Amino acid sequence: MAMASATLTIWTTAWLNGKAAADDVLDALSTLADRHGVVADDETTAAETELPVAGTYPAPAAQLLAALRARGADAGSLALPAPGDPRGLGGGGALVGAALKAGEASVFAAAGLALVPDSPADDVVRWTVYRHAGGGTDEHVGIGEAEQSLTAAIRASAATLAELDVARERPDAHDALRARLRRAPAPRWPDGMPGRALRVLQRADEVAVILELAAADEPGSAVSASAAQHRADALRPLDAAVRQARRAAVSEAVRLLAQPVTRS
Length: 264
Description:
The protein has 264 residues and is an alpha+beta fold. The chain is built from ten helices and six strands.
């Protein structure tokens, strides 16, 4: 379900601003999973959005789009929270807990809503809609700065990763990386998707897979607790740079897609 929230945020923003059709949004989501269902977290949110409450049969994704438009959504933003870093979620409560567990959320602040994905079964994505109280927005980081920070973090981490000798522990690391990237669904993006944002997203995806492989222990390996902690500490700045790069890339795409359509 890699970065489902980025797909929803970008495509829904394009649709809300006349740059894509509703069917385009649904087709883009179908590259992530064949079935998407939507529920509201609580009875109040269910009543306000006319969506079924969690624990009942979910609504189709098209009903989510209708709810967003009815509540005045204009453009979305991507939240990528981590422990100790809940930026973009606004306040606390059930939204923060769910988004931290998922590692992502799509926020439509003008509509007062945030959406968190999870995958209860193979080829199924369920979106839960939470109230978003506003505030808690991430400080703006330009895409150029985020790209530079990602490059710097990769360079800074290289020596530490070499010291940890990840290549020796994972002699198949390069093959595993290529295999994981091949298996990842190829996302579709709307016309007008800025090339730099696309490039940064692709690079962040590659680094995220490297991080996942570097953090994993081979079956049967005897990695001490202190060595595992050292590895986690070394990878943490790179993880933060990946999250920042993804947020900045989505923000740049949203900024351009939300611009008014000019007519000649």
